[in-house]
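Pilot study result, target chain (451 residues):
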Amino acid sequence: MMKSVFQSMTSRIILILVSGVVVSALLSLFLAFGERQRMIGQFRDFHAVERVAQFILSLETVSPDLRASYLSAASGIGIQAQLAESGDDIRPQSELAQRLEQRLLPGHEVASALPRSTDCTPPSRPGRPFQRRQHDFRAACEALLVTLQDGARVRLTVVPPRPPSFAPPPDFLDYGILFVLSVSALAAIVARMTMRPLKQLAQAATELGNNIDRPALPERGATEIRQAAAAFNAMQSRIRHHIRQRAHILAAITHDLQTPLTRLRLRLEKVDDTELRAKLISDLSAMQDMVREGLDLARSMDLAEAMQPLDLDSLIDSVCADAADAGQPVTATGTTTASVLARPTALRRCLTNLIDNAVKYGHSAQVSAVREGGLAVIRIRDSGPGIPEAELEKVFDPFYRLENSRSRDTGGTGLGLTIARNIVEQHGGTIRLSNASEGGLEVTVRLPVRA
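Predicted structure:
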């Protein structure tokens, strides 16, 4: 089921659009979050430098004999301060030390020192020990040695404020779902607008196979759509012209042959040799039958007859009754209770050809009709020997016969099934041959039912 959904071009367009927009939104959110963290980091560093600088500048106003008390009282605001002792290990100046030295007034010197084990003791809260974070807390701690303007040195231990962790707002999920739904609705609208012309073109191509005279596609919409519709209409016009030209040529040739064949038949009646006259008349009759079926083939390709609603059961009963009146062993069973959109004369010719073939080669015809869903199914079975499986499709080719001879008594002209297939396909149906398990050949015709 899922595979069939994603085989649809509309589903693929929706999926691509939604995925692209969601990925773009997530990427934008990631970049915005990164920029936010960078700005917060810059502000945090500036705040740390400013806090220490203000502390040092305020310390300058305190007399030297009171500085120890002032430093002890001022500790606990993120800064631990004490008068420097000899023996502190100096390390290369850190970035914080450089910024602090640039912020202070001239005469101050700032150096970086190695932190001691007692520096930056993590604060404790009842019930929330910091043993797990103690190492990380001390790693962020930094020791500075600041030389005041009077030459005194102060040792500062600074703990920069921790960067805030990203926590989405409580309604972030609701907003995310609403965003995805909005994008999906927009993608569905865009996909439908994009695929509608393609579906119309596909439907027109399907209808073209059933009705070459179908109305032309409207040439409106975007430039590419108008160009495709114009190209399709031009193709339909050329196909219609070629089909009619071919049908007219075939009809003209077969029609014009009838006159000289009739004259030949009249003259053959004057031949004295009875045996020769009979053979010549037999050959001439075969030629006339071929010409007649050639005309039928031309008519089967002619789409001039208008399509109209037709009661299929009435047509089947009429064709079977005509065959029975002609002395043919034909029986009919079942009903379709269906109406089809058809060319009545052409469809009658198709059923007549199939019944004639069944009687001629299978000695009888059992016609059954049934409705299967949206299709009307007509089956014509004979009592003959059937057809080899390899020949079931080839017999639909024009002038193809199972026998190598051209005798009318054995193989006919080979146009009956070609004519039947042309007519069935013009009505949007299908025709196939199969050998029945009980013996004989079965022809199955399926026609779409008119809604």
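One observation from the pilot: The chain is about 55% helix and 15% strand. A full batch analysis is planned for the follow-on phase.
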